[in-house]
Amino acid sequence: MNLSKLLAFLFFGCIIIACVPEKKEIVYPKTDLNTIPLIPKPVEVIATNSAFRLDSKTVIFTNQTSNGFEEVGQYFADKIKSRLNLNITVNGAIDETVERIIYINQSDSLDSDSPEAYQLYIKNDSVLLNAKTAAGAFRGIQTLRQLLPETSNDTLAEQPMWLIPSGKIIDEPIFEYRGAMLDVARHFFTVEEVKKYIDLLAYYKYNKFHMHLTDDQGWRIEIKSWPKLTEVGAQKEVGGGPGGFYTQEEFKDLVAYAAERHMEIIPEVDMPGHTNAASLSYPILNGNGKKLEYYTGTHVGFSTFDARRDTVYTFLDDVIKEIAELSPSPYFHIGGDESHVTKKNDYIHFVEKVEEIVKKHGKTMVGWEEIIQGDLDSSSVVQFWRDSVNAKTAALKGHQIIFSPAHKAYLDMQYDSLSKHGLHWAAYIPVDTAYNWNPGTYIKSLPKDHILGFEAPLWSETISDSAELEYLAFPRAIGYAELGWTIAENRNWENYKKRLAAQQPFLERNNVNFYASKLIDWKEHKERLPKD
Ligand code: TNX
Questions:
Q1: Is the CB of 337 inside a 6 Å radius of any atom of ligand 1?
Q2: At 214, which helix (H) or strand (E)?
């Protein structure tokens, strides 16, 4: 640069600086990041007692525009738009109106083995979210969503702004598998109802959504090579209602919707028992020799496939192939529970053959704990629901285990004897009982490295729409989210129940028909009764 250019630069530079109005010193109110009612509670929170101002001068940036990072930024921008009516750009131009930045940063240097780990550094003018993967960034965004205050603070500016307490959060989950299951077979739930549940679960950092797609009462997924499964098998549900099913396009839409929330859909075809609807559609599959008709009651254990008939395996090869192609999850759930009318040898023969088919289609088999009677590949995953002896046997045989003990983890159990919906064959499960246990030590002698994670099943014999689903799932599913994510040292009922009470605005804003348990000191509407 020659001298005249330099002088010109300095001259105009001075004019520009002189023209910029002096910024008003902002006095931030004292905040405490540690008192924000986050669920699940993070590993470490360090408060710095100031605040980040979220307002229209904020933008979101991601250091990677591929690998899902930009989509995570856009997800947050969309939530900010619908919640606060603020337009925040993602990877847009930085012009003079931009004052603050939320920076989502892919970084390999996090000190954690979990792909879902994240770190948040919240300062006055920037929020830095570090994560190894987009899934980790997405979990971090849920924390930020929970940090958004209920109301804007307009006293410091003409424009509304929202203050996020400053500080640092270091976080990672204890389990890689944090699931919820929905039974769409006993009662059918529409795509929109399922999406609403997925959205709520995502907010609490669930990462697996297991769909129980078939049972005695109905078959709920289109199989193109065996069309009667839905033409016949999907037409009824418990109580005799019209049932329903997902077309393959609808199922793909659900899979994609869940994937945008970094949640994986695990499809289940329950067999060889729980198969009345399939056998009614194709009687050649039937193994109990009884006359077939629609079943709209709630008993279990009376149906079975014919485990010695080749056609059954031809059929299953087609079914598993079609579903495996729709579902990117590495897992395929074969059910396997309560096959009370299948002879033991037939049952063993069946699960071993089905495991081969599942593997042939590139998936890892998951089954309810009864499958351990078979001689299975140790890569298959066992879902423990009833008998801890089965869980121990599973571990001895080298399997990973998903924890769903019915008397602690079943969302379809009534809260108490007065609960409107639900069953109680395993237990009544009030909100504190649901929270106050530890999957990691629940079975004393079970080696920890065999616990893949936790899942909360919601069977639908007694529920048929979102309001009834939400009555059973909320608030217990929120506590289960913490059991799956938060280290035991950070879990404490007295502290949790205050944080749970603080979820009320979120639940109400999202029109969630939660059960207002008297154990929780809800801030308002104490007398609120759940809708029928
Ligand atoms: C047991 S748990 C079942 C389901 C029922 C549920 C009702 C399990 C693997 N099987 O078929 O819907 O109880 O709580």
A1: yes
A2: strand 214-215
